[in-house]
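Action item from last meeting closed. Structure (278 res):
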C-alpha cells in the first residue's frame, strides 16, 4: 500500500468531520444575516420597518442643555468714574429735562404722573429706597409711562459724612429694589443735597450708574408758593436745562400745582420735555 492512500474507514471519518464543519459555518452565516439591521429575519433581504430596530435610550446627559455653547449674557459696560455730575444734557433743539426727587409718595406722585401723562411727556424720578420699597406699584407706573427711574440713596443721608461701605449700602440697596421691581437696574443716580464726593462717584460707576445733577433748582421744598416755583422754572428754561423738583419729603402740593401751570407753557414755547439716554 502506498503511503498517500488512506484506509476506507479513515476516509469516512474525514468526510463526516468536513460536513459538520460546513454545517456550523453555514449556521453562523445565517445567524449573522438575520441579525443584520435592514435585513428581514427570513433572509429575503427586505428592509425591516423602523420599529424593527429599538432606538437608543435617552440618558440624563443627552437631555441636559449644552450650556457650554449657550450665547453669553451681555452686560452693559460700566461707565467711567466722573469727577463731577452732569449739570445739563446735550441739547438737540429746545430740549429740557424735568426731575423729581425723594419719592415715590402716594400723596403726590400719582398727581404728578397724571399731569405728565396728560401732556404726554416723560420725566425722571430719583427715588429713595425706603420710599420705593413700600410703593412699588408707583415705580411700575413710572416705568410703564416711559419715565426714567433713578437712584437717590436709601434714606437721603449726607454722602460726604459716610464711609465708603455705607455709601455702597445706600446706593446698592436702592438699586436692588428698583431692579427687582422693574427688571432693570437704574442707570442714573443723584446725591442728596447735591453733595457728592470721590467715593460716591467711584461706587456709583461700579454699580453701573452715571451722576446727574441739575441746572435749575425750584427750591420747592421750602414751599415758596406756586407762583414762585412757576416763575423760577420759566426764567431758567433753556436748551439742555435740568429742572429739580420734589414729589416727596414733605407737603408737595405746591410742586404739583406749579407743574400744572409751567408744563403747558414750556410746551407752548416749543420745548420738548424728555429724559436723557445712555
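Sequence:
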Amino acid at each position: 500500500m502506498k503511503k498517500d492512500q488512506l484506509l476506507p474507514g479513515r476516509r469516512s471519518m474525514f468526510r463526516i468531520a468536513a460536513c459538520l464543519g460546513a454545517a456550523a459555518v453555514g449556521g453562523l452565516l445565517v445567524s449573522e444575516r438575520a441579525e443584520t439591521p435592514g435585513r428581514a429575519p427570513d433572509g429575503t433581504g427586505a428592509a425591516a420597518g423602523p420599529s424593527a430596530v429599538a432606538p437608543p435610550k435617552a440618558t440624563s446627559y443627552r437631555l441636559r442643555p449644552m450650556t457650554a455653547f449657550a450665547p453669553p449674557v451681555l452686560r452693559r459696560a460700566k461707565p467711567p468714574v466722573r469727577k463731577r455730575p452732569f449739570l445739563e444734557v446735550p441739547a438737540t433743539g429746545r430740549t429740557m429735562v424735568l426731575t423729581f426727587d425723594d419719592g415715590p409718595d402716594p400723596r403726590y406722585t400719582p398727581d404728578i404722573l397724571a399731569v405728565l401723562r396728560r401732556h404726554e411727556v416723560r420725566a425722571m424720578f430719583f427715588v429713595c429706597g425706603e420710599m420705593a420699597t413700600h410703593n412699588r406699584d408707583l415705580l411700575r407706573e413710572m416705568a410703564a409711562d416711559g419715565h426714567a427711574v433713578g437712584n437717590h440713596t436709601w434714606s437721603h443721608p449726607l454722602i460726604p459724612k459716610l464711609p465708603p461701605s455705607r455709601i455702597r449700602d445706600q446706593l446698592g440697596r436702592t438699586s436692588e429694589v428698583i431692579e427687582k421691581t422693574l427688571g432693570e437696574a437704574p442707570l442714573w443716580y443723584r446725591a442728596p443735597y447735591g453733595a457728592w464726593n470721590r467715593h460716591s462717584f467711584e461706587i456709583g460707576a461700579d454699580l453701573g450708574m452715571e451722576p446727574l445733577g441739575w441746572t435749575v433748582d425750584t427750591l420747592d421744598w421750602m414751599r415758596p408758593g406756586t407762583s414762585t416755583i412757576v416763575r423760577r422754572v420759566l426764567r431758567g428754561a433753556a436748551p439742555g436745562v435740568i429742572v429739580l423738583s420734589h414729589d416727596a419729603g414733605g407737603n408737595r402740593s405746591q410742586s404739583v400745582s406749579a407743574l400744572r401751570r409751567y408744563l403747558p407753557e414750556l410746551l407752548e414755547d416749543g420745548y420738548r420735555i424728555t429724559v436723557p439716554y445712555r
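Note appended to the action item: The CA atoms of residues 64 and 74 lie 23 Å apart.
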